[in-house]
Write a structure and sequence with these properties.
Layout: E1 3-7, H1 16-33, E2 38-43, H2 45-48, H3 57-71, E3 79-83, H4 89-98, H5 103-107, H6 110-116, H7 124-138, E4 142-144, H8 152-169, H9 179-186, H10 221-229, H11 247-259, H12 264-271, H13 277-300, H14 304-332
Parallel strand pairs: 1-2, 1-4, 2-3
Helix pairs in contact: 3-13, 4-7, 4-14, 7-8, 10-13, 11-12, 11-13
The chain binds tryptophan.
Protein name: Tryptophan--tRNA ligase
EC number: 6.1.1.2
Enzyme class: ligase
Length: 336
Amino acid sequence: MQTILTGIRSNSVLTLGNYLGALLPMVRLANKHSESYNINIFVPDLHSIISDVDGDLRENIIRTIKYYLAVGLKVNENVHIYRQSYVPAHSELCWILNCVATMGETSRMIQYKEKSKGQESCNVGIFDYPILMAADILLYDATYVPIGEDQFQHIELTRNLAMRFNNRFGEIFTVPAKTSEQIKFMGVSDGIRIRDLLNPEKKMSKSTKAENSKIMLDDEPAKAAKKIMSATTDSLGKIKFDMFNQPGVSNLLQIEALVNDAPLQDVISVWAGETRYGELKKKVAESVSGMLTDFQAKLAGISDEQVYELLENGEKYSNEVAGAKLLEVQKAFHLR
Ligand code: TRP
């Protein structure tokens, strides 16, 4: 059975962008394939500590897992939920892969370049982050790794490391699918990227200071509706999906489609040519506040005990699978 694997960092409460761009597509994919694939959903908590964490990391981790359940993840015996730091093989394989990867290829990672800004005070974890991510993936022979477009470069790096390793030692790792195949498998034209409500050229981000730029998943639904009503649009006066020239309006159309699980094309044609941005905002505000009301109620209904039970099973499974793979790698290097 092939494996689909994904993780989402849980450094804080997540945004509507994380919900629509990551959680929701992942849950839909998992529910569609969980009869015929292993579905590994893990919390990369060791990746969290490369930067500041809002609040308590342990609480954030539990909340993130509840998010998946509240979005509607159906758990069967093929679905495995675990925390990275509870499976020591991740860090161990990371070290070994450090000795396979080159400074050159790791230094080229865009996220590292952006986050480090060339500063010597940047922690080594930020640099090494993609290698740990490669370990996360390769330990489980994952073929599909549904993630946002900002992570595609890390998948390519993972593929290169796996191929280099296999060339040297034989077929130990499954090489994950190419980015183009990942996109096809996810069934999206390219990564979904929900925009900042005030500056729609940018991605919606929890680290943006302005409150009205972002919708947090714990926002009061009425407050979220107000944020949509105050979203930046443009002065062209015609509703059209055009991310380049009309990113604000296009973002609203995108949100409307995703929240209602409607094809984007359908939403676009309903609104095409309309001139009243206020009407569109009102509709999207209703959709988003309805979704949040429903989501928050579901979230409140999930207990910590439920999560710990899933983790216990998931971590037993992941330690077995990852431990066996690590042993193969250790043998290849004559460490065992
Ligand atoms: N790097 C991912 C992010 O920041 C999180 C992550 C870590 C991940 N390891 C992974 C995602 C392995 C998929 C597979 O969003």
